[in-house]
Amino acid sequence: MCGEFDLKTCVAMLIMDRLDIGGSFAEFHPFDFEEDFILVGHDGPHHLIIAEGKPVLRSLKKYHGKPGRGASVEFKIKEGSITMLGITQTGAGTFKFVIGEGMSKKGPIPPTGNTNTRGFFEPTTKEFIKKWVMEGPTHHYALGVGHHADTVAKIAEILGIEYVIVR
After folding, report:
1. What is the pLDDT of residues 98-149, one digit of tens each?
2. In whole angstroms, what is the distance from residue 116 CA to residue 43 CA?
3. Torsion angle defined by CA atoms of residues 164, 79, 26 and 156, in that order, rounded to the nearest 10 degrees
4. Where does residue 44 fall: left (phi above 0), alpha (psi -120 to 50 degrees), or beta otherwise?
5. I need a surface site. Which of 33, 56, 93, 116 has the fewest CB within 10 A?
């Protein structure tokens, strides 16, 4: 189950799981304009297929933006190509797949208890994010490893669902 009762993202996660490419709950985080990357990830449910190495059980004195304290499971995401699938709604009330591809690259990640990676996108991360947002996605999406936008688009076609691949 995905976090924050986001059932459309739960369906996106299931699609990616069935493609055997992951399907972790994710969103965009802070932007680094100097190095041209954005943090990609989230707290909560993640798929072990995208993990690099063993997870870390991090003790938090305070959860980020939430009341309380405790343990959080955090792991690094594999370096290499990534695919994102967001499921949103159109103005007519039908579903739409928003699909994107990028690169996960190693580098420092704040120790917040979240699973995150440094996401790099073409032509620049700033331009990619502008195009992504213009497609009207929800702020959550499913994250998988490898470049599989064309495969996800074929699933949308078979299901008769509008889609866009953000390039």
Report:
1. 999 999 999 998 877 778 899 999 999 999 999 999 999 998 999 999 999 9
2. 9
3. 30
4. left
5. 93
